[in-house]
Write a structure and sequence with these properties.
With 433 residues, the chain is mainly beta. It contains 6 helices and 39 strands. It is elongated, with a radius of gyration of 26 Å. 44% of the residues are buried. The protein binds 2-acetamido-2-deoxy-beta-D-glucopyranose (2 copies).
Amino acid sequence: MKFVRYFIAFSTLCLSTTLSQDSSDKSSEENIMPKCFKPQYEISSSGDIKKISDCQTISGSINIHGYDNELLELGSIRQIKGDLKISNASQVMRIEAPELESIDGSFTLSTLTSLTSASFPKLESVDTLEWKVLPILSSVGLNKGIKKINSIIMSDTSLTGFGGFNVDTLKTLRIDNNRFLERIESSVKEITDELIIAANARNLEVAFPELGWVKVAMIKDTKNLDLGGLQVVQSSAEFIENKFDTLSLPKLKSIGSTLSMINNKKLENADFSSLVEVGGGLMIIKNNNLKEINFFPALKSVGGAIEFEGDINDSSFKRLKIVKGSAIMKSSSSSFDCQKWIDKEVSDVVRGGKIECGSGNSEFTEVIHIDEDGERTGTSTGRNNAKTSDKGRGVHNVHDSTSVATHSFGDTRGLLSIFVACLTIMAAVEISS
Ligand SMILES: *[C@@H]1O[C@H](CO)[C@@H](O)[C@H](O)[C@H]1NC(C)=O
Ligand SMILES: *[C@@H]1O[C@H](CO)[C@@H](O)[C@H](O)[C@H]1NC(C)=O
């Protein structure tokens, strides 16, 4: 079976629309029915939902769980002033909310194991979209495009594409464990909390070309990564087990906490040409094809330790002035010159901690202890992991998310026109033929 994918941009539509919400509250008069004014609705049957589906505005939160029908229809509900949570309803196959325009709180879809399609053609505004454990969900219709959203969390779905969330600012963007998801792109400019991408399809391409500022970035298991505009990481940046050969962050100036590059087996080149400051540690570990650590030409200070491990044959830090922690080099390359590294590269910059270096066939490293004034206080030996052990280390498990046994995708895969949409500008349409 062949899949053909079309990306359709609705840019004019989305860009011309400002974020202003409909201020003329048209629903105020029609909605004087007392049943529409409750802080919380607990719904577990189609009968329950019918009772309120003629409300245009629901004043509270709707919590739907253990629902008894294949189709869940939200009727004429246009606005939900609280959250909409649909969870643990194994019978639900389709969700339709033809009139729904806004959800003031969170929009949660969670543990809906039979859900294959969901349609929210008029939805434009949500605070947090949190979709988790939707193992066969492959079609989402957000035809109008979401123009106002703070956070997006998508885990354990079968979505195959995910077009531009073209809002400028997001709080959290977390997309993980979507096994068929091959492309994530967005024109977001700022992520004020976390950006987490992990364990999606093997060939995942990630493009956030306009992202300039992020608090925490964790990028794992990607094939291609475009973060070319990134200037500031306020806290930590981690690149783990990716398959790209180049990591290019030419505009990145500072990282507030730790920078980790771990187990990126194909990585050969890195570009951090503007990076001046790393507030925490700098860890470059087991990137087997990365031979030379010479891509920090502007780096002046590291607030924690520097720790390098791998088949590293050379290193150079032209501007490095201070490392407020240890400096550890465990190289498996016999071309690596420990004496040069210790004497020329790090001796004068390490304050407190130790300097450790091992290379080539040596099982051991030489360790020099340094006090806070930069004076040597003693020596000892350590273990050269690069040579003696091949165990991965320091690799975080991505997260807590229930790693749902990936349900077999079965026949549903070919069934659907996949309209994975566009949280703002684009819709990715996948048509099976
Ligand atoms: C989900 O629903 C099933 C059956 O309706 C119930 O036994 C189970 O406890 C529910 N789980 C949660 C987390 O609510
Ligand atoms: C290190 O390895 C690279 C790539 O194989 C090579 O171009 C470079 O000359 C080597 N440098 C040293 C000092 O051996």
